[in-house]
Amino acid sequence: MRLLGLDVGAKTVGVAVSDELGITAQKVMTIPVDEERFNFGMRPLKKLVHQYNADGFVLGLPKNMDGTSGASVTRSKAYGKRLEKKFGLPVYYSDERLTTIESRRVLVEEAGIHDRHKRKEVIDQMAAVLILQNYLDQKRKD
């Protein structure tokens, strides 16, 4: 089962993909979005769904640290509904608290990317990898 992991933000969507066995996640790309212009990045996602023969999506659920939901959770769930309607594929959600912080740490400490502009180019993709990898790991435990 191949899944696309998405880190949905107000301006970009980071994308990751799982291997066919659903064991590992790899970064793919960052898609620009513009909610005010109703551009939700569906065209590039359609290409990726076909390219990878995706069976579904895993979206990060950006809850607050105390577990409550805010505007970002609403945005993510609305995006998930768009995906279900557009592609007819299942959408799963994974708690993404701290994934952006963890992404930043990995990029600086492990990848040695200290330049803020270079990190910005891949941080959404890295967050998508962590969202998807957390989901895959949890799925294997269950």
Would you summarize the structure shown here?
With 142 residues, the protein is of the alpha/beta class.
Question: Can you give keywords for this protein?
Answer:
142 residues; Nucleotidyltransferase, domain 5; 5 strands; globular
What share of residues are in beta strands? 15-25%
DSSP helical segment count:
4
Specify the overall morphology: globular
The H-level CATH homologous superfamily, spelled out, is: YqgF/RNase H-like domain
CATH topology: Nucleotidyltransferase, domain 5
**Biggest sheet details:** 5 strands, mixed
Average pLDDT score: 84
Helix content: 40-55%
Structurally, the number of domains stands at 1
Describe this structure in words.
The structure is a single chain. It contains four helices and five strands. Strand 2 and strand 3 form a beta hairpin. It has one domain: 2-Layer Sandwich (Nucleotidyltransferase, domain 5). With 142 residues, it is an alpha/beta fold. Helix 3 crosses helix 4. The radius of gyration is 14 Å and the shape is globular. It has a five-stranded mixed sheet, sandwiched between helices.
Topology:
Blueprint: E1 3-8, E2 12-18, E3 25-32, H1 42-52, E4 56-61, H2 71-87, E5 91-95, H3 99-110, H4 116-141
Helix pairs in contact: 3-4
